[in-house]
């Protein structure tokens, strides 16, 4: 069956309306479609839902859910950015929005010493964050230099520690792309199978296992030509299978046609005998 729970729209940085995403999914026989716009953040940025548009986003997804109930199941979710000092508690967003599920993701890393300042000056946060996502690796390099003096191990450790705190304290329904820090590394500063890096990956995997969260298998890096592996990587998925961690394939769609880009994820999971693949959340 076809499903996708990691779906953006033009309420955030997606390039199509909610309805255009829905119509494409229905036309291609999807049974489940979950929307997961980028959560509002209290500083000016180009990718998240604006705070004053959050209610409209939730209401529009709910209206589509009712309108299309006989053709496809639509779910109201949110990809919530966990950022110390800016967004550490998912509950207000869950409660005010009436969310059915959450994807917890880390895209923005503050330098640990700046968290207090960010907390008291949230509108200035952009200057104190390392943006690890996005198409430009130069921006990744600049942030690493500015916040961590170019020390990749410190920066990467901060990324995983932030993911770990999120998983432990917020227990998102789905853990989003928890090793995406490798994308803009482009095998320059380190390689995935270096011991210090794998130790960090395995520590996060262990936490996912202990908390019972679902983990996504995110295919976006591959079809955007930005990376050669899923998030998490194939080798990590093999390890996760030994622990029985439930996974769900996500295209992280920003355009209707992205919804079809599963990039061999189901085939790979089948090939390695992955035991716990989910197609729907409930
Ligand atoms: Zn994301
Ligand atoms: Zn996303």
Describe this structure in words.
This protein has one domain: TIM Barrel, CATH 3.20.20.140. It has helices spanning 18-27, 54-67, 91-97, 115-120, 137-148, 152-170, 195-211, 220-223, 234-243, 265-271, and strands spanning 2-4, 30-38, 73-81, 101-105, 108-110, 129-131, 174-175, 214-218, 247-250, 277-278. Strand 2 (30-38), helix 2 and strand 3 (73-81) form a beta-alpha-beta unit. It is α/β, with parallel strands linked by helices and 282 residues long. The two termini are 14 Å apart. The protein has ten helices and ten strands. One zinc ion (ZN) binds at residues 79, 105, 107, 176-177.
Write the layout of secondary structure elements.
Elements: E1 2-4, H1 18-27, E2 30-38, H2 54-67, E3 73-81, H3 91-97, E4 101-105, E5 108-110, H4 115-120, E6 129-131, H5 137-148, H6 152-170, E7 174-175, H7 195-211, E8 214-218, H8 220-223, H9 234-243, E9 247-250, H10 265-271, E10 277-278
Helix pairs in contact: 6-7, 7-9
The structure holds zinc ion (ZN) (2 copies).
Residues 6, 8, 79, 252 line the site of one zinc ion.
Explain briefly what this protein structure is.
The protein has 282 residues and is an alpha/beta fold.
**Gap from first CA to last CA:** 14 Å
Helix content: 25-40%
Tell me the CATH superfamily: Metal-dependent hydrolases
Total strand segments: 10
User: What gross morphology would you assign?
Assistant: globular
Tag the structure with descriptive keywords.
282 residues; alpha/beta; TIM Barrel; 8-stranded parallel β-sheet; two-stranded antiparallel sheet; 10 strands; binds zinc ion
């Amino acid at each position: 069956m076809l499903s996708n729970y990691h779906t953006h729209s033009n309420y955030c940085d997606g390039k199509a309306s909610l309805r255009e995403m829905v119509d494409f999914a229905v036309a291609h026989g999807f049974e489940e479609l979950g929307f997961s716009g980028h959560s509002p953040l209290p500083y000016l940025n180009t990718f998240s839902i604006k705070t004053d548009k959050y209610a409209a986003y939730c209401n529009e997804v709910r209206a589509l859910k009712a309108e299309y109930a006989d053709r496809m199941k639509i779910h109201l979710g949110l990809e919530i950015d966990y950022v110390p000092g800016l967004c550490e508690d998912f509950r207000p967003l869950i409660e005010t929005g009436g969310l059915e599920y959450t994807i917890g993701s880390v895209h923005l890393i503050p330098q640990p010493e700046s968290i207090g300042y960010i907390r008291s000056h949230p509108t200035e946060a952009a200057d104190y964050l390392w943006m690890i996502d996005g198409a430009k690796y130069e921006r990744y390099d600049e942030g690493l230099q500015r916040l961590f003096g170019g020390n990749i191990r410190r920066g990467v450790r901060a990324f995983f520690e932030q993911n770990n705190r999120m998983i432990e304290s917020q227990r998102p329904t789905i853990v989003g792309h928890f090793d995406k820090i490798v994308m803009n590394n482009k095998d320059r500063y380190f390689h995935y199978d270096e011991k210090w890096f794998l130790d960090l990956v395995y520590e996060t995997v262990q936490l996912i296992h202990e908390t019972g969260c679902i983990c996504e298998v995110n295919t976006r890096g591959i079809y955007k030509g930005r990376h050669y592996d899923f998030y998490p990587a194939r080798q990590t998925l093999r390890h996760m299978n030994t622990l029985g961690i439930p996974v769900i394939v996500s295209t992280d769609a920003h355009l209707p046609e992205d919804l079809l880009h599963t990039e061999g994820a189901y085939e790979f999971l089948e090939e390695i005998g992955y035991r716990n693949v989910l197609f729907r959340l409930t």
